[in-house]
Amino acid sequence: SLATCLLHVQKNEIRTFDSLDGLWTFVREPHNGGDIGIGNQWNTLDLDKFSNATVMPVPSAYNDIGTGSELRDHIGWVWYEKKEFVPLRDRNMRHVLRFASVNYFAVVYVNSEKVTSHTGGHLPFEVDVSSQIKFGAENKFTVAVNNTLSWSTIPQGDFNYQKLAQRNISGRILSRLPDGAVKNVGNFDFFNYAGILRTVQLVKIPSTHIQNINIVADHTGSFFFETAANNLDGIQVEVKMFDGDSNQVYTTNQTKGEGKLENAKLWWPRGMGDPNLYTLEVSLISDGELIDIYRETFGFRTVTWSDSQIFINSKPFYCLGFGMHEDFELIGRGFNQAVMTKDLNLLEWMGGNCYRTTHYPYSEERMFENDRRGIAVIVETPAVGLKGFSKANNNLHIKMLTDMIDRDKNHPSVFAWSLANEPQTAKKESRAYFKTLVDTAHGIDRTRPVTTVYGPTNFDNDETADLMDFICVNRYYGWYIDMGYIPWINQSVYWDISLWRETFHKPIIVTEYGADSIPGLNQEPSVDFSEQYQNEVIQETHHAFDALHKDHTITGEMIWNFADFMTGMTTTRAVGNHKGVFTRSRQAKIAAYTLRNRYLKRFDQT
Ligand code: GCB
For this structure, is 422 an active site residue? Predict the structure, then answer.
């Protein structure tokens, strides 16, 4: 509904915010220590007086900032605290505390009082703290964060106390493991970076304020918009639409409107045209005085699909893309402008036009950049590797999906919603579960297709693929299947994907394929983990893609992965996953040039 939305934060004539980013006081509870902080009401204490207090940069994951494995591998609670003045000047503004991403569970206190809690790591949440804030004084913001994953979290994780395996050895009781040993293994292939991962802001908005804006604009120039405010008594609404050159092209005094723009300049993905953007400016006016104002950017573009292709503005769209991660040295999954900008610059250098926000919603900053640059994206919920399909999981998943669509609905670059990555959808109960998700997404947004990314299932045992508007498939021929048999890849990929297509008659994007390579490891003839081997797997897979594309069997391809990224420790990972075509520090491997040649050539044809 219109009321649930969190507007992106902006500064303008009326609105402003204080950034709470910077160094926060940080205290880690003992590993697996129960709920000591909550039990002892640490929210009422000054954490900066604790003898074990240190500082932690925000935004950043905390895991790689310390010097020991205790912090990196911590399971349980950590506490953040920041003391900040709030100017007296702002006392007439409503104050909303907003977190763009805290992984995974957060409890928030202002001046010792609990104000909210939030579940899930990658979507914003906010709380009105106007009555807790002390104006013209220092305020204490405290956040307790817990990263423990379980069968009821999304993503799911396996949490278990290790069996002690006690034995009586020569009259002494010996245990194999230390007392209290615990394992928390995420059901996915990336490091569970935790903490305050994106910006924290104290948002200042007027007491009468705009709450939501929804805009649908298509390639014929037709548009519809709807806006909501918390109070419209005696308020005049003024809505103006501007083109990219700040020319006013439409105006109304209604909170809802529709119309048709002649010669609308369309939003196109890179290679198909310019990514033209428009702005809808909504003002609230009382007695001739401006009370609130908000400007939302959007684009005129249409996504449609047939049984084999995806179209943008009625033209076939072929995705040349990437699976990615928000991942970098030291900061883990923490937002960093330099890393984001470098990544998107490299994506353009590669000739890419598309990516999937594997395996969680990415930062809001990135979504605006996608719009501006003309990069088409599939936005994915944090549901990676689902194995259990309980009612409780389903409710949480629906909430995350709803919040995600609310956050990103006005971005023209978003062309599809992905419900999950590699769920165990051979299980019968997954069908009803996924049906509720598809219905939820369609119920909120009729303008974009819904997809799910399949991995563990096949064309003949998946219980859910027919519910989707299009289908995404991950396949690792030459790596997890038939390692060492590069000449088999072409035929296997062609065969596998053709069977999905024959069965479901839906458009298909191959969203993952690839191989690990340790940068600088060279072997001729190629051997697994060498740069040559990765390159050859990719080249062979491309032969299959060319044939599949020609047959209209696929409507896009995405390499796994854009760059190397950190994972938990397992026997198949050597300091993380090395399927990147770039290293973790964003230097090109051999495979990057292969992909770049391919994408640039394709790009020129569209
Ligand atoms: C997959 C997963 C991705 C992994 C990748 C791999 O299918 O979707 O998260 O990182 O395979 O490299 O195993």
Answer: yes
The burial class, CB within 10 Å (0-12 / 13-18 / 19+), for 152 is middle
The answer to whether the Cα torsion of 591, 382, 338, 567 is positive or negative is negative
Query: In this predicted complex, what is the ipTM?
Result: 0.99
Atom of ligand 1 nearest to the CA of 455: 7
Phi, psi of 556 (to 5 degrees): 170, 165
Measured from CB, residues less than 6 Å from any atom of ligand 1 are 188-189, 359, 421-422, 455, 474, 512, 560, 577, 579
Residue ranges covered by each domain of the chain: 2-204, 208-298, 303-605
Q: Look at residue 5 in the predicted model and tell me its pLDDT.
A: 60
pLDDT in tens, 478-517: 999 999 999 999 999 999 999 999 999 999 999 999 999 9
Closest atom of ligand 1 to CA, residue 579: 12
pLDDT at 605: 53
Beta-ladder partners of 421: 384, 453
Give dist(CA 402, CA 395) in Å, integer: 11
Domains 2-204 and 208-298 equal at CATH topology level: no
What CATH number belongs to 2-204? Answer: 2.60.120.260
Nearest CA to ligand 1 atom 5: 189
Instruction: Indicate the fold that domain 208-298 takes in CATH.
Output: Immunoglobulin-like (2.60.40)
Protein residue whose Cα sits closest to atom 3 of ligand 1: 189
Which residues pair with residue 377 across a beta bridge?
355, 414
CA dist 43 and 500 (Å) reads 54
404-423 pLDDT, tens digit per residue, is 999 999 999 999 999 999 99
Quote the CA–CA distance of 585 and 338 in Å, as a whole number.
12
* Residue 325 backbone phi and psi in degrees, to 5: -155, 150
Alpha-carbon distance of 114 to 97, in angstroms, equals: 12
Band (pLDDT 50/70/90 cuts) for residue 2 is: very low
Best substitution site from 355, 387, 559, 560 to test ligand 1's pocket, by max atoms within 8 Å of Cβ?
A: 560
